[in-house]
Amino acid sequence: MTTSNKYTPWPHATVTAVADVLADTNEGLTGGEIGELLALIGVADADGSSKRKRLGQALLVRQARDQASNCVIRFIAEAMSPVRYRQRPDVFSRRRDDLNEVLVHVGLRVNDEGRMARGPAASTLDQAAQHANSLRAELRRRGTHPQVLAYCTKEILTKNAFHASLEATKSVYDRLRQLTGEQSDGSRLVDDVLAFGSTGTPRVAINTGTTTTERDEQKGFANLLKGLGSMYRNPTAHDPRLHRPVTDDELLELLTTLSMVHRRLDHARVKP
């Protein structure tokens, strides 16, 4: 996509969303980088109470003056130049995915080379998540539990579904250790903290355990965790990735299940 042509101005909300991504407080460009890039493309800097407002205002003012979105397109292209990310490929992947969730609304995307390209347009959030082709976008749409993402975001950014499934599954066992102080692992840990044991009361109880149904639910929950470990942690820890492929769809289903597990643990009663 060349900026020698004149492109229709983008909606205010789209330009603002682009600025929100590229000038994010924690993950975005620094103030110095924003000033450098604005100068590089010949756009006057602007005042703002934050990096995001500063960048958004600068681009909106220039777009209004030119009656074209070329300045926004060029800023994105310069900001996403791959050479800037030679030491941080995960940052490139994260920013590209986040930008593509926005750009899909104007029928554009950032490709693997960091260049602006034509893409399918979307008018709804569900369509945007689908067209952006971003695993992270779909995970956010599903409301994936932060405890899951904390363990596998790096692997997701590098599009390594095999190791993402391994690290995400570990999150549950680590959570049980954090809740109870136990140091065991795997099935033994699950039995130690979720089984009824000799006292008849699990150390981590997901319900009151006063009815047969609730006791069955507790046992089912424990068996689920053992099953997830047997399916995803043990094989991926011992088998080569070549012999244990994990598709993006399978990973999404696993992370959704693990999110449910963590949400049940959020409200569990923990016995000292």
Set out the fold topology.
Blueprint: H1 12-22, H2 31-40, H3 51-66, H4 70-79, H5 89-103, E1 108-110, E2 116-118, H6 125-131, H7 135-141, H8 146-157, H9 161-180, H10 186-194, E3 204-205, H11 212-238, H12 248-266, E4 269-270
Antiparallel strand pairs: 1-2, 3-4
Instruction: Write the element-wise H/E pattern from the N-terminal end onward.
Output: HHHHHEEHHHHHEHHE
Structural class: mainly alpha
Helix content: 55-70%
Overall average residue pLDDT: 87
Oligomer category: single chain
Through-space gap between termini:
61 Å
Low-confidence stretches are none
- What's the number of domains? 2
- Biggest beta-sheet profile: 2 strands, antiparallel
For the secondary structure, the number of strands is: 4
Number of helices, where a helix is a run of at least 4 consecutive DSSP H or I residues: 12
The shape is elongated
- Estimate the strand proportion: under 5%
Give the strand order, joined by hyphens, for the main sheet.
1-2
User: What Rg is obtained from the alpha carbons, in whole angstroms?
Assistant: 23 Å
Descriptive account of the structure:
This protein is mainly alpha-helical and 272 residues long. It folds into 2 domains: 12-134; 146-270. Helix content is 60%, strand content 4%. The chain is built from 12 helices and 4 strands; from the N terminus they run H-H-H-H-H-E-E-H-H-H-H-H-E-H-H-E. It has helices at 12-22, 31-40, 51-66, 70-79, 89-103, 125-131, 135-141, 146-157, 161-180, 186-194, 212-238, 248-266, and strands at 108-110, 116-118, 204-205, 269-270. The strands form 2 sheets. A two-stranded antiparallel sheet has the order 1-2. It has a two-stranded antiparallel sheet with strand order 3-4. Helix 1 runs antiparallel to helix 5 (89-103) and helix 10 (186-194) runs antiparallel to helix 11. The protein is elongated, with a radius of gyration of 23 Å. The N and C termini lie far apart (61 Å).
